[in-house]
Known about the structure:
Number of strands: 3
Shape: elongated
Largest sheet: 3 strands, antiparallel
Strand content: 15-25%
Amino acid sequence: MGAARFLGRATIEIPQDFQRFVEGALMRLQVQYPSLRFSASSQGVAVEELPPDRLDDLRKNVLHAIYREKIYLETLPLRHALIGAVTAR
């Protein structure tokens, strides 16, 4: 059997406009991929010891998690206002 191949460290680039959502998305990513180690970097999200054949799938999920975090944060005030209006006496 051959030894498993891993990328030492891969960085998934995140557009500058989305950088502020990276930290919030890291927890969701860690739950999705418990065997991988994620960290925020100046370019995006760094991943340690990633099998090369999983990079495309992981990139898709990282971008999705960051976009979900963006939507969550941008709609939070709206949800608070709606809950306040519905529960007001």
